[in-house]
Amino acid sequence: MGFFDRFSESQDMGIDLGTANTLIYVPGKDIVLNQPSIIAIDTEKQVAIAVGEEARKMLGRTPANVKTIRPLKDGVITDIKVTEMMLRKFINEVRGNSSPSRSRIIIGVPSGITSVERRAVEEAMESSGSLENIEFIDEPIAAALGAVLPVAEAIGSMIVDIGGGTTEVAVLSYQGIVYSDSVRVAGDEITEAITRHLKRVYNLIIGERTAEQIKMDIGSAYPGENDQQEMEIRGLYMVSGLPKTVTITAEEIRAAISEPVGVIVEAIKKTLERTPPELAGDIIDRGIMLAGGGALLKGIDSLITNETGIITHIAPNPLKCVVYGTGKVLEDFERLGRVSKKG
Ligand SMILES: Nc1ncnc2c1ncn2[C@@H]1O[C@H](COP(=O)(O)OP(=O)(O)OP(=O)(O)O)[C@@H](O)[C@H]1O
Ligand SMILES: [Mg+2]
């Protein structure tokens, strides 16, 4: 098979349309698409040149007539038309030219989504040629299902999904959200804090990809053995306008990102305070579960354990929890169908 599996028959799909990454799951096939939510557009001809990883490689390297866009910001759709273009391209990559009928699509959306935003997702789906049954599922529920929490039972669980644009904290019991909170601070804000730090302290301008790389390589939320780890960073020195290399440490990056990381911790604490006592007891017994790419920030689990006194686990595939959750609903619609809702 090539880069993407091609299908000719009708098929159900589970979609995680995320700020940072879009994933598509097909029952019986596993994840068939996993790409950054980025599109490169020719601004003169108004056509898409590339999507996903291909478009990401162009980030910060495009000629004047090409624009790379992340159409979802803060976990919601900021540009409906561009989102439609991107989603259409992704779905075409999965389905080729076939247009299956009567299939079911379950799409994860932030729990705080407004009806206007929800309508925008539907429009994006419809203009993608997907005339089938579209249902929405709250992302925290999907993430919890994907992280194998006992969502269908009368047991309280806490899921924290730290994505690119939003962090969603939810207490779930018996297939429903008992209480949830969402803050528009997540991986992107952490990356931006690194960019700001290099500019402020070293007068160094770095691109988004470099800042993200720093976060993944030496970023951390909690003191650890790697604190003295160093990294050489190349950027543009504002004073001379020329390239320059500086050396930074893991410890200074932890300090630089402590503010957005703190906002995430506060959202968790606030949710715990509002959780009914019986369910809080369950959470204390079973721990907090982290999902989303932000769960991969080194030491974030230790920090949360330390700040809340509750043991914190990282889901096995944090970046895939939401899409696996949508897949579970597709595969067991009789039992889990009521967690999704018609748009
Ligand atoms: N190893 C890592 N260390 C730290 N952060 C990481 C790591 N891997 C990925 N991330 C971050 O995870 C974020 C993307 O996570 P994810 O794919 O779950 O977001 P999303 O679902 O697209 O966004 P949202 O749910 O907000 O719409 C990015 O900010 C990325 O930088
Ligand atoms: Mg997400």
Question: Mind explaining what this structure looks like?
Answer:
There is one protein chain. The chain is α+β, with helices and mostly antiparallel strands and 343 residues long. It has three domains: 13-141 and 322-342, ATPase, nucleotide binding domain (Nucleotidyltransferase, domain 5); 151-185 and 261-318, ATPase, nucleotide binding domain (Nucleotidyltransferase, domain 5, 2-Layer Sandwich), CATH 3.30.420; 187-258, Actin, Chain A, domain 4. Helices cover 37% and strands 28% of the residues. The protein contains twelve helices and 19 strands. The protein has helices spanning 52-58, 80-95, 115-127, 139-146, 187-202, 208-218, 250-256, 258-273, 277-286, 300-308, 321-331, 333-336; strands at 13-17, 21-26, 30-36, 39-42, 47-51, 66-69, 72-73, 76-77, 104-109, 133-138, 157-162, 167-173, 176-183, 204-205, 230-237, 243-249, 288-291, 312-314, 340-342. Strands 3-2-1-9-10-19 form a six-stranded mixed sheet, sandwiched between helices. It has a five-stranded mixed sheet with strand order 13-12-11-17-18, sandwiched between helices. A hairpin with a 3-residue loop joins strand 1 and strand 2 (21-26). Helix 2 packs across helix 3. It is flat and about 65 Å long. The chain binds adenosine-5'-triphosphate and magnesium ion (MG).
